[in-house]
Every structure is written in C-alpha cells, then in structure tokens.
Specification:
The protein has 151 residues and is α/β, with parallel strands linked by helices. The chain is 42% helix and 19% strand. Helix 2 links the parallel strand 2 (32-39) and strand 3. Helix 3 (95-106) runs parallel beside helix 5 (129-136).
Length: 151
C-alpha cells in the first residue's frame, strides 16, 4: 500500500515530526523512503527590485545548496537504525510544483509532510506548499501537525 513514501523536508520541527510518521509507515508496510529538499532557484526567490533584475552573489547560491544538504542530513537522522531503503534528493525550483512533479514522475504512493499551519492573510500572501500538494498531488498526502507521540 505505502511502498514508495515521499518525505519533503525544510528542516523544521514539523518536517522532522513528519519524517517520524513516514518511518512508521515504511516500517509497517515495508516501504522505501525518499527524503527531498527543494532549493528555491534564485530566479524564483521573492525579491523586489527597481531595475527589474536582481543579482545574487554566487556565494549565496552555494550557501542555499549547502544548507539544503544539511537539512537532508538532519532529517536523515530520524532514520538511524532504519532497516529499509532510504534515498535523499536535492532539487531546485518552486517547492510546491517540484514536489508534485517528483511525486508524479516517481509514482509515489504517499507524501508525508509537515504543515506549519499558516492561515488567513499569512497563508494567502505567502502561499502554502502543503496546500499546493494537497490540491495537485497524484497520491494521498499525510499532513502532520502538532507533536503527538507516535506509537
């Protein structure tokens, strides 16, 4: 049932909590875990400019990439002593769109991710990756909210 489990992570506490749920599912159903972090491309980063162009120093882009790798490693720590298969993927682009594309191409059976809980004006203005996933993912999505204990 849950043979291919996609676990998006941004390194937040909610993402780490979601990783624990994903691990429980993988252990129960002998599933394979794929941890993914999306680095938002410099051309899709929110920015305001007078001249219609924004230049980011190469070091900023390298730092974004390095930070993404650290986030994946931090999340992977939730899988210490995990007996199943686990992969890590670092991608680039708009997070919601990229995650849906990965889920489609990889034929994932479930997406397990944290939800920060932005709502109202904040959610409307900032957008919501989890909201995008729920509406466009090709498979069931488990949104983890709160810090409940996992049995």
């Amino acid at each position: 049932m849950f043979k291919k489990i996609l676990v998006p992570t941004d390194g937040s506490d909610m993402a780490l909590q979601a990783a624990k749920y994903a691990r429980a599912l993988a252990e129960k159903f002998d599933g394979k875990i794929t941890l993914v972090h999306i680095v938002q491309n410099y051309y899709s980063l929110p920015a305001f400019s007078i001249a219609d162009t924004v230049t980011f120093p190469l070091t900023v882009l390298q730092d974004l990439d390095a930070n993404g790798r650290l986030i994946l490693e931090k999340t992977r720590e939730a899988f210490i002593d995990f007996g199943g298969a686990i992969d890590t993927v670092l991608e680039y682009g708009p997070p919601g769109k990229q995650l849906v594309d990965i889920a489609v191409k990889g034929n994932y059976s479930v997406i397990v991710m944290g939800r920060r809980g932005l709502s109202g004006v904040s959610g409307l203005l900032l957008g919501s990756v989890s909201n995008h996933i729920v509406h466009y993912a090709p498979c069931p999505t488990l949104l983890v909210r709160g810090t409940e204990k996992i049995d």
